[in-house]
Amino acid sequence: KNEVEQSPQNLTAQEGEFITINCSYSVGISALHWLQQHPGGGIVSLFMLSSGKKKHGRLIATINIQEKHSSLHITASHPRDSAVYICAVVTGANSKLTFGKGITLSVRP
Amino acid sequence: DAGITQSPRHKVTETGTPVTLRCHQTENHRYMYWYRQDPGHGLRLIHYSYGVKDTDKGEVSDGYSVSRSKTEDFLLTLESATSSQTSVYFCAIRTQGARYNEQFFGPGTRLTVL
Q1: Which of A62, A58, A50 minimizes the C-alpha distance to A23?
Q2: A102 and chain B: CB distance < 8 Å anywhere?
Q3: Spacing of C-alpha A109 from chain mean position
C-alpha cells in the first residue's frame, strides 16, 4: 500500500464546476504539499499546510491531521486549471517528501 | 522560481556512458534534493543534501551518486547510464524564513538513455 493515496485517479470537469481532489496518507507528517504540473511543464508549489485551511485565489486546501486526509478544492474551474495535481507529505528531520501519483484534471470549455 | 536552474535541460546518451546533471541555486538554501519522475511511479527521491559535503540516500539511489562541493551546486551523476534511468529529473530546494520548510522545484531535465 502506498503511503500517499490520491483520488480520483483522473478527473474531467466542465468549465465552472467546483472540483475536489483528495489525498490520504498513512504516516505521521509535519506538513503536506499540494503541487501542480502542466503537461510538459515544471512543478509548481500551490500550498504547504500543516493544519486547517489555506486559500489562494480560486484554490482552497484543507487538512485534517487526525484523519490523515487533505483536500484541494478548485472553485469556478477553468480550462487553464487542466494539469496534474500532486499531493506530497513531509516526513523526517530532513523534510523528505513522499509523493502521491498525482491526479490528471481536464477541464472542458 | 526560487532561483533554481538545471542543466542540461535535455540529454540523449547511450547505455554505459557517464552522465552528470547540475542543479544550481542562487539563494543560499541549505537543503537540496534530486527526484526522478516516471509514469506510474510519480516522483521519487534519489539523493538529498543538507549542506556542503553532507548528502544522504533517498528511496531510489542505486546507480546514482551526488556531490555538493559548494552551497549553490548539487550534482547528480550516473556513473554508467542504463535504459532504466531514462526519466525526467527534478532538483528542489527547501526554504527557510517566511516560507519555512517549503520545497520549490527546478524546471527539470529530460534524460533519454538509448
Answers
A1: A62
A2: yes
A3: 22
Residues of chain A with C-beta less than 8 angstroms from the C-beta of B34: none
Residue B96 pLDDT > 80: no
Determine the Cα–Cα distance for residues B92 and A59; give it in Å rounded to an integer: 23
**A27 interfaces chain B, CB cutoff of 8 Å:** no
Q: Are B104 and B95 in contact (CB under 8 A)?
A: yes
Span B32-72, pLDDT tens digits: 999 999 988 889 999 999 999 999 999 999 999 999 999 99
Which residues contact residue B70 at a Cβ distance below 8 angstroms, ignoring those fewer than 6 apart?
B52
Q: Label residue B98 by pLDDT band (50, 70, 90).
A: low
Residue B99, classed as helix, strand or coil, is: helix
Contact: B108, A94; criterion CB under 8 Å: no
How far apart, in whole angstroms, are the C-alpha atoms of residue A66 and residue B94? 26
